[in-house]
Amino acid sequence: MTKKEIILEAGARLFAKRSFNSVGIRDIAAEAGVNSAMISYYFGGKVGLLREIFLRFDRLLSYESGLALEQATSQNDLIRRFVSSVLDSARMNRDVYLVGLKELNHDSEDLHDLREDFHSKAEAVFVANIDRLGINIPDDPAFRTLGFTATLGMIFSDYLLGGGSCLDDDTVLEAYKQTVITILQSGMPKYWA
């Protein structure tokens, strides 16, 4: 692992445990085992590090959701694939996902452009594949964004509220996935109809 990668992981770990504002450059440097100047060298400072973590979250979630959407053959298949792949990715990248999810709901001006870009890309992929699957949803951008946000909230409810404790145990994770899938498969058709 490169020093840049070590710093990124240390920053994600600390930002996930505490808040962005309560973590200092020295904390990150100590966690990464590097000189504090390395953070400025690689990321331009703490905000740059946060932006890089958010971009990684965006890439991971976009990849997993895009893959699920492209491979889905029906609405129920889409839900099953999306929930499974995203939670598996979150398990492998726990801290990055937790920081990204926190920042999606935070009004920090430092990430405003990245949040806007995330939402517009997610909506474009969502709309293209919803149309391909023949799912009828109202042609209202607010409705589409709300549907996507509600789906993410359902998938990550344990992750956001309980720190992702369900991700630690294979049996619990599978039960959690199935619960979320069942709720979404039962509720989304009514929501979209």
From TrEMBL:
Keyword DNA-binding: yes
Keywords from the named record: DNA-binding, Transcription, Transcription regulation
Protein name, as recorded: HTH tetR-type domain-containing protein
HTH tetR-type domain segment(s): 1-61
DNA-binding region as annotated in the record: 24-43
Keyword Nucleotide-binding belongs to the record: no
Top-level taxon: Bacteria
